[in-house]
Amino acid sequence: MKLGKVLPVVLSLGLMLPFAGPAHAAEEPVVKVELTAPFALSSTEALTTMTFTVNGNYTVEGQPSFILIAGQKYFVQLENGALSLYRFGQMGMPVPLVQGVSTLTLTPSLPDGEAATLKVEGKTEYSYRGGLELRVGYKGTIQRIIPINIVGMENYLKGVVPSEMYTSWNREALKAQAVAARTYAVRKLNTQPGGYINDTVQYQVYKGVTNENQNSNLAVEETKGEVLSYNGSLIDAVYSSSNGGYTEAAENVWKGSGVPYLTAKPDPYDAASGTKDRSWQQTLTLAQLQDKIKNRTPAVGTIKKIEVKQTYPSGRVADLAIEGDKGELHLSKDEARTVLGLRSARYTVQANYSTPTPASVKELLAINSDVTTARKEAGGLVIASSTTTKASTGANLVIQGAEQKKAVSQSGNGTASQPVLTSVTFNGSGYGHGVGMSQWGAQQMAKEGKTYRDILDFYYAPAQITGGYGTQN
Description:
Elements: E1 30-34, E2 49-55, E3 58-60, E4 63-68, E5 73-79, E6 82-88, E7 94-101, E8 103-108, E9 117-121, E10 126-129, E11 131-139, E12 142-152, H1 153-164, H2 171-191, E13 197-198, H3 214-221, E14 227-230, E15 233-234, E16 239-240, H4 268-271, E17 280-285, H5 286-292, E18 303-311, E19 317-324, E20 328-332, H6 335-338, E21 347-354, H7 361-364, E22 371-377, E23 380-385, E24 389-392, E25 397-400, E26 405-408, E27 420-428, E28 437-438, H8 439-447, H9 452-460, E29 464-466
Parallel strand pairs: 1-13, 16-28
Antiparallel strand pairs: 1-12, 2-5, 2-9, 3-4, 3-8, 5-6, 6-7, 8-11, 9-10, 11-12, 14-15, 14-29, 17-27, 18-19, 19-20, 21-27, 22-23, 23-24, 25-26
């Protein structure tokens, strides 16, 4: 799904089906989120030390003899394949607290823990509500620390909604975002291997307390427990920044069969939203294209041609053919945008060619030591040596030197010049996969007076809002 903030990240005026009533009280799910945002590590880096400060007292599971004190700074370090917890003492000297464990779990001392937060330090500082679990894991073959925030669903959403949508936007749009994000998260809790998700666009962007805002917090609180269901099950409530004026069917983007609540249709709200992604242009050089497909199979060699072979009714590319001197590669479904790093798959292709500049006649005629000058005039080639001047159309001119002969073409370089692909320009609209809710479309609907229920109905009908995190219909 698209995740990522709405960046520089329908037709019906009434409800097709009525939504259910207000949400009812139910047990709030707990979310486990791997934290990556503070560290911004490259693909070759692994987290081996993590520094944090607690705001509020925390206990350490299995260590009843002490608590982590509010305002105090601590760090966890990976040592010999295990975790060790230290406190910064006087003069910054580390004081060991726990050593040689595979897991550390920190929990707010007070039962509700609402005021307790942890400030995690890295390349950027972020603060988080709830607890923190630290595990030993791997990044490839390298051991690392896996920091996991343990937080209630509603507080999790307070860190997601403002990371996915501008907090200055209409409250109804933010409420629609909250319901979609809640549905997505609750559904993932039931299916996610390992029991945790992360804070990136792979799932939903989450930046904890650092990103919280009153407007988005109210949107979360006013929709507490509300999710989207179809036939008694939570839907896959995916969303993207902008669909470019046309939603896409899920089966045209990902593997699997379609579902009735994620279909393709015109979206006049996104089209009228004014997003800068309504129209975009991106040019990739031949070298950039080669680099982007270097690990794809089959290998194509040097790219000679790129062409859209098929599109869906939405205008999105269904089959992009890349032809090279060694083979042909076809990109389909979501690969048509993600492999090339394009803003969406709703684009047209303009291949840009150039004709190589031919070598000068003088260079080619240098095989003959008598040649002193050569130039090309409108009527053909003029070759001057120390004794003669020779004019020729160039069509049948052969220059003979001491050791070789050279046939000179009309272009003057000995071979016919052929256009060479130098770059490709993509002209498109939209940002993201285009399936489900358009965030810019949701904002436009809200500006036009539609409620969050109207918004969700347009993008996900026949799915309906249910309360109690899907346990109460």
